[in-house]
Each structure stands twice: as structure tokens, then as C-alpha cells.
Amino acid sequence: MRSRGRGLGYAVAVVALLTFFLGPFVWQVLTSLWPDDQLGRALPRSLTVGAYASVLGGRPFVRWIANSLAVAAATTALCLLIGTAAGFALAKLEFRGRRLLLGAALAISMFPPIATVSPLYLALRAVGLRDQLAGLVPPYATFALPMTLWILSSFFRQLPDELYQAARVDGCTPLLAFRKVLLPLAAPGLFTTAILVFIFSWNEFLYALTFLSSPEKRTVPVALSLLAGEHKEPWPEIAAASVVATLPLVALTILFQRRIVSGLTAGAVKG
Amino acid sequence: MSRGAPSRGGSLAAERRQAYLLVAPAVAVLAAVALYPIGAALWLSLHRHIVVFHERSFLGFANYRFLLADARFWSALGHTAYFTVVAVSAELALGLPLALILHEARRGRGLLRALVLIPWAIPTVVAAKLWAWLLNPSYGLINRLLGGADINWLGHPVLALHTAIVVDAWKTTPFVAILLLAGLQGIPEDIYRAARVDGASSFRIFRSITLPLLRPALALALLFRTLDALRVFDAIYVLTEGGPANTTETLSLYAYKTLMRAGDFGYGATLSVVTFLCVALAAAALVRGLGRGWEEAR
Amino acid sequence: MRLARSLTLVLALLSAACQRGHSPGERARLVFKYQPLWGDPAPLREHLARFAAENPDLDLRVETLPNSTDLIHQFFLTALEGGDDSFDVLVADVTWIPEFARAGWIADLSDGFPPDALRAAFLPGPTDAVVLGGRTFAVPWYVDVGLLYVRTDLTPRAPRTYDELRSFARAAMERHPSLAGYLWQGRQYEGLSCNVYEAIWGHGGQAPEVGRRILLDTAAARTGLLYLHDLIASGISPPLVTSAAEEETRRVFQDGRAVFMRNWPYAWAELQAAGSPVRGRVGIAPLPSLSGQPGPGTLGGWQLAVNAHAPPERRRAAARLIAHLTSPEANLLMALAYGRNPARRATYADARLRAQAPMIADLAPLVEHARPRPVTPYYQLFTDLLQGEFSAAISGIRTPEQALARAQRQVDRLIGWAP
């Protein structure tokens, strides 16, 4: 992988993959700066930030982002807390019902969400959580938890038993051994899961649309869907809005990415 | 390698107790939130419940019998299966090189990884709209790059589904790459060093060391992507709404239209349950097939 | 340690999210749910403020919905089926009124809006959509109608028959080879249904017949579908129409790359905006028909209804709000500030409106003859079926006969079960 001979093929592959994955987004950023009346041309003759002005001006974008942030963060925190505990147990401890739990969790996440909207709506109304941001967290967690359990249990399982056993021999309870020894090593898995759960919660649309109705509680995906007119589709505005909505996620991802790397170098893993 | 063999530090029973304690919150959340809606859907699927007419009658399994004879269901199933197989294969095939590249990156590593995650980070609806614009027959970049071609990507009966597959692959390959990347980063450097000292070629290293050690991550990616692809909805809804002539209609889309447009909650629930069963079957098959991979990787 | 901190964080976030904001005051809350109008929000806000000022005992709130008909329908279906009473006035698409009325989700407004009064003041199409069984269930807010846009510099006049449409288009296409002839919406969605109904009506049919049986498989229907299919097959309409919704066709037409376009009135403002390549070179006309008489356009538009789950005092207040929003001044305001076509007949003759938007004079006869889609609570049930079959017919996957026969079978079975 490191030999210089790979040179050209490698470079071509890099460029091709990056173009495919980043190209559309770059094009979207360009579209957001494209004057609407020049959309017919191959390339814009001039660039304008009018779309951004229209999207951000007079719209509580910060509010929407804050709402999405609150829900996504709460869901992620909840999933990590619960998922780490359960994942550890699933991976390292012996108990009846291991398979059942994983299977059932998977089964639950496989159920088409659209069929659950109506019953959940009634349930949330019954407990008074309709039109509350907190009301979104349990459904989100339910759909994110299975993935969390599977990823974390898989990660924990991969960690060598010797360290854990060594800590136990030294007199630690399973919980202490877990916290002191395994948790730091599982950091890459934790942060991977955190990113995935966060992004999933942030982008969830169906429940956010149905369960929340007050304008001040709107989350970003629902807010983005408000931008089109009844027939009109303002492409530059839609592009601008999606760019603005994605920036917090990109920022957070950059932060998490560094932790993945440091998580790796921090642990002393014997081969 | 034994998994969780009781240590000398405590008894098996105590360990089991602790285990139950640790999984209790997860079980509680799942049970509390998921059981009622799923149960309600199962119950509804046995009824004829057309919301608008306040009609609710118990039918037993008549809905399921109708479904087995429903040509539109079978078409949707076919489209869904085809979509899943092709899309997931593409995503694994693209995701692995992408993960390898990200793993190798030296400078600007963090930024690169974050940028590659962008397709995954964008809400699906927005991503689909983005691609709808790229694929616009008159204004889209794709047709322009093809020299002003007039290809009707989303309006052609055969092309539409494949275009949707490409869009889905674009959006979710980063997810696969991230999972594989985490797996790659879990492989200790020493193993590579030892192999290179032994004079193994890069390809040999990849095939004999990297791939086998990546099995768990690959299995995980395969499992989750398959389950997601079988339930694809947002992208197709935005791109084609199931058209043209229902050639891109997937199970989820059919269920959605039945539930939310027609207000036929009974049959819609039936479709959802059957979708769920198909997904469960696929999951069971995969877990069984991949379960061996998990054990072997140790 | 980390665990405790994480827990605190979760709890803090949850409680922050749980802001139970306002304690109920003495004023009754009145909530108006609608989809945002494209344009400056100020005029509508002022209009609503006037209502609030006149009704100090009410606390008026406005909540917006996403601008997708599907999503709005889905939201209302879930909410109203769940007995939601957190909103009072709602917008409804013209095809939903029979459905919502049958389900008992919208209140009878005949007291405040007697059907005769409605029929006298409002256009016949929307009135037929909201007056069911002699009772008023909603009040029209604004209307839409399918019509033909014509490039006046490329054709001598608007075509009156289908033959003229084809020949005018061909003539222009021969003079300018890169032109498309006739653009319309052929993507598989409700817009396609509108186009197909217009084709069926233009061929002399009543589509579909709604009596005891919903008759789809008629001669006119077959001819209409064949006509649309042939438009694409013969090259008059480019292949892109099978994936085109309103905006796709509008942009191509606005770039001057087509001779005719079928679309809603909203496109006019865009086509005549500064910077539009076709500014000043476009006219509107009724759709062509087989006989040469103006072909009816599909009726679109939105109505205002009252949530039947709300308690009686709020329902009365909601009716007052609806009266305020559908008054002649409100109709004029919607037209002047937002380009929404009035539902009241008289507004079309208003001098100010004519001064600002001269095409309103051409639009008036078109909306007068706008024809609604089948007014039946079954509409949502079968429209989805039809869209699939219509799409199959126009893209040539099935012949019109096959498509209609299949649709007929499925609809028969569906309706056959209904009470």
C-alpha cells in the first residue's frame, strides 16, 4: 500500500472517487450561487449570494438548527449510554437471550416507519409529548438503537479478552474493568456510532413532520421542505438551504474524525 | 477464544445479573416505543380499515390472501429485490476502495474524511433533489457533460430504476466506507509490518490479511445496507414517485401510497407487515450466512 | 465522571426540548394551518392582524405546512384521524373536501356560508367542489386552472383544435429545429391525471363517470390517452415530459425552447418577469379540443375548512376567520400581493387587479369553465391507481385499452367493497 509504484493507478482512483462523491455537492454549492435567470446556461455568468440572503434573511434558521441539534444530541447521548452498556454485555458476558435481543432489536428497526406513524402519533398524544422536541427522542432512539447495539457489540467482541481478564484478575468488577480498560479501546466504535446516530436523527423527516406542528419547534429537514412554493421550485434557494443545513454536520464530523484517529493511537493493542 | 467465560473474579450468576442490568435500559426503550406501533400495525393488517369511511371490519387473513394475488405487490417486490442486490453490491464495491483511500490519506485526513461523509450527511430528500437537478434532461450537468444528450434518466421505464440505484449508492457508500474504515483502523500495524518483512506483496497482504480481518465490518455493512435498501423510500419518492408506470415502485412506496394517499390503513398495514417479513427473512439469511464469518475472524 | 456528566447532559437536553412554553391565557387560541405563499409575507400578516384586532378575545396563531400536497394530506390524515384539535382552520386541496367531509373531519359551514350565497359570489367550479349534498363544507380560497401557454412570436394564433396544435407546432419546429413542440406534465403524479382528464374532456368525454360505478374505460378516455401517447411518439412532445412536473416544463418554455406549454397560471408571472427570455412573447389560451370549442382546464386551488374536532366556540371563531380570509378584499389582496387567482367572480373585474395583471381578463373565462376532477370521497383511493395506468399508457408500456381495462378492474374491486 505504501510502495511508490502504485502511483498513477492509485491517483486516478482517488480522483475518480472524490469527483463522484464530492462533485455533486460542489455543484450544489455552485447552484446556490447561481442567479436564477441564468440557470439555462452551462455555467453562470455571475455569482450571487441572493439565494443565501433569501434563505437566511427573515427565517429562523438558527432556531431550526438548534432544534435539530437538541434532538440529535439527545438521541445520540441516549443511544450511546444505553448501547454501550448493552453492547458490552452482549459481547463479553454470558447470559440467556443474547441472540434474542439482537434479533428482536434488528427486527424492530426493520419495520417500515410509515406504518408506525399513526399509532405513535396517538401514543405520543396520550402521554402529552406531541409537538414536543423530547417526543421525537424515543422513536429516534428506537430506530437507532439496533444499529448501535450491533456495531458496539461487534466492536467490543473484537477487543481481546486478555486485557479484560487481566483487569478482572486484578480485582476489578466487570463494570470497572469495562470503564477503565475496554472503553478507551472502543472509542473508534463509539465515535463511529455517534456520528451515524447523530446524522440519522438530524436527517429524519417523517416523524419530525408528523409529531411537531409549532413553527418554533421545526427541525431542519422539515424546514427545508417549506422552501418551495406551491408549484415553484427555487433551485438556488433549495441548494443554499441544504448547504447551510449541512455545514453543522460537516463541522461536527471533522471534530469526531480527529477523535477516531486519536482513539486508535491511544490504545495499546497487542496483535 | 471464549467469549465471556466466567472469570475467577465472580460467579456465573452474578455475571448474568450484571448482564441483565446492563441490557435492561435497551430492552425497556425498545419495548416501550416499538411494541405498541408494531402491534397496532399487525392488528390493523387483519382488518379492512379505510379511514375516510370509518370502516373497520375484521377480515382475518383476507388482506394477506389478496396481497398474494396482487400483481402490483409482486412488481414492487421484484423492483425492491433488484434494487437491493444491485445497490448493495455497488456500495460494497465502491465503499472498500474508498475506505482504503481514506485509510491511506496522509495530509488533510480529517477534512477528507469529513468531506466524503457529506453525501451521507445531507438529508435524503435534499440529496435526491440535488440529483434530480443533475439528471434534469434539459439543464442537468450529466446530460451536458454527455455533450448535450437528451437522455430522460428518470422518465424511461428501465433507466429510472438504475438511476435511482446510482443516487442511492452515492448517498450511502460513505456509510459503508466509514464502517469499513473503522474496521481497517482496528487492524494493528504490526501485522502489516510483519507481513512486509516476510516479503509479501501489497495485493497478497490485502487478500490474506486485510480482507479476512475486515470480515466483521464487511458483514455489518452488508447487513445494514441490505436492510436499508429493502426499505428504500425517500430517494425514490423524490426522484420518480414510483413512476414511470410504477416501474420504480418499491414496497415502502406502495405501502406509503396505500396508507397516506388512499387512507387504506388496513391494507397498508398488511403491506408494511409483509415488507417487514421480507426484510426479516433477508436479515435472518444474512446473519446465518455471515455469522460464520464473525466467528472465523477471531 | 464521564457517566454522570453524560447523564446530566441527556437530562438537560431533554428538559430543554420539553419547553412547555405558554400558559393558557384568557383568550381562546385559534390556529390557522396553511401552506406558505411564495412572496412577501407582510400583506397577509397585516390582513390577519386586522382580524386579530377586530377579535381581541382571540389569540390567533399561524402555522405553516410544507409545500407538498402529499405531505399536507399525510399530515392531516394522521392528525385528524387521531382526533387532533390543536388547529382550527386548515387548507384543503380541491379534491380532498369530499373525503374530509365524509370522514367527518371538517365542519358543516352552511350557517355562515349558505350554498346559494356561495354559488352567487364564487366561481362555479370551486363551489361544486365544496358544496356537497346541499351543505357547505369549505370555502374556496384561491383557484387554479390548467391552460395553454403560447409563443405568440412563433405561431399565428392559439390553436383551437388538436390538429391545429400539431400543425402549428410542426411548422414552428421546422423553422427552428431545436424547438420542442408542446410541453406538458407526464410524470407519474397528480399533475399527469390533470393532463389526462383535460385530454379526455377535450375529446368529448366525461371522465370518469361517477355514478354508482366509476366508469373509466370509455371511448373518449381511450382516445385521450392515445392522443397524449402519440404526442410523444410523433416527436411533438419531447421525451422529457414523462419525467416532467410543472417546473421542468416551465423552465424549458421560459428559455424559449418550446412553442406550447400546458401549465397553471402561476407560470405567467415567471415568464413575464424581468430577465425572462420570453418576456412579452407569450400569451395564454384555453386548451384545444377535438371540436374546436375551448377545452376545459382542470380545476385546482385550495379551500379553507374548519376542523370538526374543535369545540363549538372555536368553530364559530374559525368560521369568522374564514370569512375574513375569503372576503372580497382578501381575494384582491391575494391576487395583488401573491398572484393567487381569486375564487370570487367579481374580483376578476376589479380595476386595480386589471391594471396590475392585465392577463386576469383572459383568465376570467378560463376559470369560469374550469372543470373539477371527480368529486367523490373515493378520489384519493383510485387516483393512485389511475396515475400508474396513465403513466403506462403514455410511455407506451401498455396500450390505452389495456391500461384503462386494468384500471377499471382495480377500481371496481376497490369500490365494490365500500359501503
The rounded Rg of chain A comes to: 23 Å
Distance between the termini of chain B: 7 Å
CATH topology of chain B: MetI-like fold
How many helices of chain B does DSSP assign?
13
CATH architecture of chain B: Orthogonal Bundle
CATH topology of chain A: MetI-like fold
The overall average pLDDT of chain B, rounded, is 84
Q: What percent of residues of chain B are in strands? A: under 5%
Distance between the termini of chain A: 20 Å
Largest sheet of chain B: 2 strands, antiparallel
CATH architecture of chain A: Orthogonal Bundle
- Indicate the structural class of chain A: mainly alpha
Number of domains of chain B: 1
- Calculate Rg of chain B over CA atoms: 23 Å
How much helix, percentage-wise, in residues of chain A?
over 70%
Structural notes for this entry:
- The complex is a heterotrimer of chains A (271), B (298) and C (419).
- With 271 residues, chain A is an all-alpha fold.
- Chain A has a single domain (59-266), classed as MetI-like fold, CATH 1.10.3720.
- Chain A has helices spanning 7-32, 50-56, 61-92, 98-110, 113-126, 137-158, 161-169, 174-185, 187-203, 206-211, 220-224, 235-266.
- In chain A, helix 4 packs across helix 6.
- The two termini of chain A are 20 Å apart.
- The model of chain A is unreliable at 1-5 and 260-271 (pLDDT under 50).
- Chain B has 298 residues and is mostly helical.
- Chain B is 72% helix and 3% strand.
- Chain B has helices at 12-44, 62-68, 71-104, 109-116, 118-121, 124-134, 141-145, 159-185, 189-197, 202-230, 234-239, 251-261, 265-296, and strands spanning 47-50, 55-58.
- Chain B has a two-stranded antiparallel sheet.
- In chain B, helix 3 (71-104) packs antiparallel against helix 10, helix 8 crosses helix 10 and helix 10 (202-230) runs antiparallel to helix 13 (265-296).
- Chain B starts with 11 loop residues before the first helix and ends with a helix.
- The relative contact order of chain B is 0.13.
- Chain C is of the alpha+beta class and 419 residues long.
- Chain C has two domains: 26-143 and 299-368, 3-Layer(aba) Sandwich (D-Maltodextrin-Binding Protein, domain 2); 147-297 and 378-417, Periplasmic binding protein-like II (D-Maltodextrin-Binding Protein, domain 2), CATH 3.40.190.
- Helices cover 46% and strands 15% of the residues of chain C.
- In chain C, the strands form four sheets. A six-stranded mixed beta sheet of chain C has the order 2-1-3-13-6-14. A four-stranded mixed beta sheet of chain C has the order 8-11-7-12, with helices on both faces.
- Classes of the chains: A mainly alpha (271), B mainly alpha (298), C alpha+beta (419).
- The interface between A and B is large, with 106 and 107 residues.
